[in-house]
Amino acid sequence: MTGTSDEAGEHTALLEQQHITDTDTADTQNVLRREHAGLRSVLVFSLAFFLAFTAWHPLQNLESTIFHGGGPLTISGTVALGLTYGTNVLAAGTVAPIIVRRFGVKPCLLFQFSAFCLVVLANAYPRVWTVYPASIIAGGGSALLWVAEGHFITEVAAADSGPHHVGGSPKTAEQGVLGLYSGVFMASFALTQVAGNVISSSVLNGCRSCAVRADYILFAVFGCLLLSALVVVVLGIKSPPEKTHANIGGVSWRREISKQLWEGGQTIVEPQFLLLAPMIFANGMDGAFIFGDFTGQFLQPRVGEDNIGMNMSVFGAANTIAALVTGKLSDWTGRLMPLTLGVVFYCGTLVTIALAPSRLNTFLASATIGVGNGIIFTLTYSVLSDRYAHKPATAYGLKSIVENIAAASYFFISRAVPLNTKIWIGVGLNVLGIVALCVPTRKAAFWRVPSITINT
Known about the structure:
15 helices, mainly alpha, disordered C terminus
């Protein structure tokens, strides 16, 4: 009798163990299925950006030569840039987060990629009444675009909720996949520098003897790329499920704008945002330096204008690899260590340019700056999403404001300040950004991702 009872107990224990094993296997399969679905969404989203910015980046590089007049009034590139920056800052802090929450990510992408098409047409027929309005529309649409991007990546990571077991320790979904998703997006975005420069150089150099002007042919190529991006958005992108502000359709715009301004004001004075702000500001300054003085004052005198594209292709390739690798790596090591490494790469190259520029190979400089910038840019996005997964639209709106103010500041002081002074300012801002991120705040320490509960 005792033996029978023991055997029955062992059999019951085995059945319970098998049930637990089956449940764990099912949970793991569900997690992997969600991750694969989220990754597919991010890849399609990244493809749309890749097609659009492969056209947009070289177009921005060419605008200084395209604005050659021809109308009754002279077109000022400075005024056009100021209109773009001003509209971006105004929209990012007020209506952009509201529009993203009300209408979703997809309409925002369609609007801005259509605005890119408008800018291409304006550059093909440069007049005051075409270029300036297109600059205003592109500035407002850019605020929508980048708020929507941050909102999409954060919400997709949140939707992939489920435990991730690493060494027996559970991790949240955001902590497990956010770095990967940010890295995939930033890698594809950085790759637009390579593709855009290759296309631009090939068309301009190969069509010099064509009956049609080479820049018109290039505009046609840009238009095809942008139309392809619009097709990808229409057919392949779905807005992520809303977790907050789901029922705002009946709220008046005046009330929603007031609420957004109040929420933005509260967010910008929070310790965790103030400690992240120096790194965001440094990001804006870094971008202005790379595509301004690095190409114009460092590369051009050494390699000539015809070879700048090749060096920037090296920059883009290094940027892509760094973003992809460190994005996923930071999910396991935390953001601080790889972000510090990125600052070392970037600032080390800047210091060498300031102290011994003749000893620095241009390809090596492009590669190391690309690696540093890729790491910093990607992980700054990841840290912002870590801290503000509960209100990504507001956080990315503020990020856009800070970055645009930084870039505009660099642009307006550029002619009055010597290159070495601007380099040391950039080094100081990046070092300050890392030091600030090492300071824990009352709400969330930098090295610990806050736990987020998603109600479905």
